[in-house]
Amino acid sequence: MATSVESVRDAVRRHSTRFEAAIPLIASENLLSPYAKELLISDFHSRYAEGAIGDRYYEGNEQVDEVETICVDLARRLFGCSFADVRPISGTVANLAVLKALAKPGEKVGTARLSDGAHISSAPFGAFGLRGVQPVTYPWDEERMTLDVPGTRALLLQERPKLCLFGLSLFLFPLPIEELRPTLEEIGAIGWYDAAHVLGLIAGGTFQDPLREGCQVLSASTHKTLPGPQHGLLLGEGADPDVTKRLASAAFPGVTSNHHLHAMAALAVSFAESLAFGQEYARQVIANARALAQALHERGFDVLGEQLGFTESHTIAVRVTKEGGGAEVSRRLAAAGIITNKNLIPGDTSSKHPGGIRLGSPEVTRVGMKEREMVQIAELFDSLLHQGRSEAEVAAAAAALKRPFTTVQYCFGRGEAAYRYYDLVGRPPSG
Q1: Which residue from 111, 344, 410, 430 could staple onto 122, CB 3.0 to 4.6 Å apart?
Q2: Alpha-carbon distance 58 to 313, whole Å?
Q3: Domain boundary residue among 255, 270, 285?
Q4: 194 and 128 co-located in one domain
Q5: Nearest-angstrom CA–CA distance, 179 and 156
Q6: pLDDT (tens digit, 9 = 90+) per residue, 367-390?
Q7: Does residue 21 fall inside a structural domain?
Q8: What is the structure's pLDDT at 430?
Q9: Does the structure show a pLDDT above 90 at 113?
Q10: Helical axes 91-102 vs 241-249, angle rounded to 10°
Q11: Quick check: 419 pLDDT over 50?
């Protein structure tokens, strides 16, 4: 048994060592701050708090109620909304709560196609299938990498779904919610925005404002462009009180029991940090993504969305069919110390062998990289995939580039009080 324990600890340490020397470009990953990580390993982890604030099924929840009240208040302030529920334990669980609250089995729900960037929760084999709703997929403008507005308007008028999901897993540009708002109102549909990928950009005021543009409900995970713990979130503004009542009931007891109190406490810290640093961070995330996309384009890579400047978010989509396809390219990059993921792009039919890769700037920005480093990262791509340098050579260069960037930025407890995020167990910050 002791051997198993040491094997687990060794594997985790090797993972940490690997990422310390790597360039992490997964669009759906980010890093906790020192204060948030301290709370994630606190005694809150060991406790239960079923129910709502002030109305729990367990004793000993007084401090939990204090923290959750603060967390909800911070969420309302950060996103300028009247309703916030921080009990979903992931983005997909938050999506399930929306579906449970606002759609019945057999009803139509609008969404994008997976090959156009939708998340798997909106697929028949995901949360949509679990709830038994019928997806109605929007037409797509491949050149602009966004919804085809006239086509989507016509589809909505024809199919008349009662719930319309806007949100993507390959999220390059703001979605045309304002343009579709009159159509949603005409057919009586509720607009629902999945902000999992762009939550931090929305918090920073640098992307779009879906709760003011035509969506009454927002769901999200909280660990991507919003650099918090892995958790979920529901927000609402301008919705019928019955809608928010149903959302709260769907969150508990619908799709959660205990809501991972340690992550909820860490989320409160992350919201406070976003209020303090979120605008600066979000602006740099987007600037870095655009700089990396431009540098890759200049080196002969087929970066999608060129017509609109490649990206207005944290995400970049690259068609790599001429370099060997998404599966092979992402594998080679990982061997060379650059962590990405293969990804469906418009026209693909196989998720295992897609034509694209997805890149993201949240984590490299979080450790202090800026536009200059994005150009250097593009040079690493070019060296490996176009110039024939070996994986070992590029991995050494990637490690050298990363070496000065191992401390979390844009958070409380920076500088001497901060710790290197690759440590196996974070040390509580001082001061």
Answers
A1: 111
A2: 42
A3: 270
A4: yes
A5: 13
A6: 999 999 999 999 999 999 999 999
A7: no
A8: 43
A9: yes
A10: 130
A11: no
At 420, give phi and psi (nearest 5°). -75, 130
Strand, helix or coil for residue 264: helix
- Number of domains composing the chain: 2
Do 316 and 289 meet the contact criterion of CB atoms below 8 Å apart? yes
Backbone torsions φ then ψ of 345, nearest 5 degrees: -130, 165
Q: What CATH number corresponds to the domain at position 226?
A: 3.40.640.10
End position of a domain, from candidates 217, 245, 270: 270
Please give the torsion angle defined by the CA atoms of residues 137, 142, 146 and 149, in that order, rounded to the nearest 10 degrees: -70
- Does 289 lie in the same domain as 243? no
Q: Which pLDDT belongs to residue 423?
A: 53
Q: DSSP for 135-154, please give it.
A: EEEPPEETTTTEE-HHHHHH
Q: Which of 140-144, 148-152, 156-160, 270-274 has the lowest mean pLDDT?
A: 140-144
Which range is least confidently modeled, 50-54, 213-217, 315-319, 423-427? 423-427
pLDDT digits (tens, 9 = 90+) for 281-295: 999 999 999 999 999
Residue 299 belongs to some domain of the structure: yes
Pairing verdict, β 140-141 and 146-147? antiparallel
10 Å Cβ neighbour count for 46?
8
Specify whether 100 is located in the same domain as 233. Answer: yes
Whether the Cβ atoms of residue 52 and residue 365 lie closer than 8 Å to each other: no
Same domain, 285 and 208: no
Examine the domain organization and report whether 223 and 238 are in the same domain: yes
The answer to whether residues 23 and 361 touch, using CB atoms and an 8 Å cutoff, is: no
Going across the sheet that includes 302-303, the strands are: 302-303, 315-319, 356-360, 341-343
Residue 149 sits in the same domain as residue 53: yes
Domain that holds residue 170: 36-270
